[in-house]
Amino acid sequence: MKSEYLQTLIVSLMMGSFSKAAENLCVTQSAVSRRIQFLEDQYGCPLVDRSGPVLKPTGAGQIVLEKAEKMMALEKELLQDLKGLTSMPGVTFCCTPAFGIAYLPEIMQTFMLSHSGISEMKFFFELPDKVVEGLREGIYQAGVIEHYECFDLGDFKTFSLPDDELVFVTSPDLGVDTGTVSIDQLLGNDLYLRSEGCCSSKMLAFNMDNIGRDCAEFARTIVCDDLHLILRAAREGNGITFASRTLVAEHVKQGTLREHRIAGFNHTHQRTLIVNTTIPSNPLLTDFISSIFGVFGSTPPVSDI
Questions:
Q1: CA-to-CA distance for 129 and 125, rounded, in angstroms?
Q2: Number of independent structural domains in the chain
Q3: Which residue has the higher pLDDT, 293 or 23?
Q4: Does residue 216 sit in the same domain as residue 305?
Q5: Is 242 helix (H, G, I), strand (E, B) or coil?
Q6: Are strands 157-170 and 258-262 parallel, antiparallel or unpaired?
Q7: Is the alpha carbon torsion for 69, 95, 100, 229 positive or negative?
Q8: Bigger pLDDT: 58 or 278?
Q9: What is the CATH number of the domain that holds 95?
Q10: Where among 83, 118, 151 does a domain terminate?
Q11: What pLDDT was estimated at residue 87?
Q12: Are 71 and 157 part of one and the same domain?
């Protein structure tokens, strides 16, 4: 039995819908449905009650759910125990997609120049709350998030990195002047966003509410999990997006996108490096963190890592 099938059942019942489970697991809804159907065929009975607006476990489903949660907890414990036997500790790092796309290639290039023989490197892209959750559960050694809301990070070592800035970007074909514009100049366009839980979506909703407006005022909101496709749609004039300035900087420089700020918006949010203190540090992690600071042209507080 593949553990991801049991995990899919757990998440589906926790989220109450296959579509939300698919988003949480970063797979298609049809993949979620196939996994649940496989389990039902395997055990010979329905596990999920699909009759209502929210998915619920059947009697058999409740039994499987309880066992599945124990099995997943045991698997996590097993992986943690095995990590302790690794003679050559590696690096397990998680960050937001925007940070990963904008900075991770340069970080890796710098890091690998002096660590060409390392074989254990794991990188993950997640939403900020999922990064923090994974650090708290011991899945990741370190992570970077952009955020405007306050997270409880008292259990970790944290380091402030240069703030990020979120801006609207449009194709020059739309004729919107670069710089500060009114929100009404943008509302007639389709708005492309990554997901409801991502940094840009949350901050946009916060800012719109702050100026007494609503995201529903855009022509349409199109959710797409692929940042590259979102930026392509914006460059081709098919819509606009609200994204990290770092992520769009090269396109703005080349003139394929224009950036805009809105009067009354808070466009800045924090960027924080988080280190899990429950996992013993190692020289590789210290050097990797140094590479992160290096892309910003600053010196890391190595003694504090």
A1: 12
A2: 2
A3: 293
A4: yes
A5: strand
A6: antiparallel
A7: positive
A8: 58
A9: 3.40.190.290
A10: 83
A11: 47
A12: no
Range of the domain at 263: 88-305
**Residue 48 is part of a domain; what is its CATH number?**
1.10.10.10
Q: Which two tokens mark 263?
A: 């009067």
Distance CA 220, CA 215 (A): 9
Question: With bands split at pLDDT 50, 70 and 90, how would you rate the model's confidence at 117?
Answer: low
Phi/psi of residue 14, nearest 5 degrees: -70, -40
Give the chain's largest Cα–Cα span.
Answer: 62
Tens digit of pLDDT for each residue in 7-55?
A: 899 999 999 999 998 888 878 888 899 999 989 988 899 999 999 999 9
The percent of residues above 70 in pLDDT, for the chain, comes to 92
How many DSSP H helices and E strands does the chain contain? 10, 12
What tokens were used for 41?
């065929």
What are the structure tokens assigned to 143, written together?
Answer: 């992570």
Tokens of 202: 């949350």
Can you list the alpha helix ranges (DSSP code H) found in the chain?
Answer: 3-15, 18-25, 29-43, 59-83, 97-113, 128-136, 199-210, 227-235, 245-254, 283-295
SS3 state at 46:
coil
pTM score, whole prediction: 0.66
The CA distance from 143 to 22, in Å, is 23
pLDDT per residue as tens digits for the range 161-179: 999 999 999 999 999 999 9
Q: How far is CA 222 from CA 151, 195, 204, 241, 245, in A?
A: 28, 9, 14, 10, 20
Residues contacting residue 89 through CB under 8 Å, at least 6 positions apart:
120, 280, 282, 284, 285
Statement to judge: residues 136 and 71 lie in one domain: no
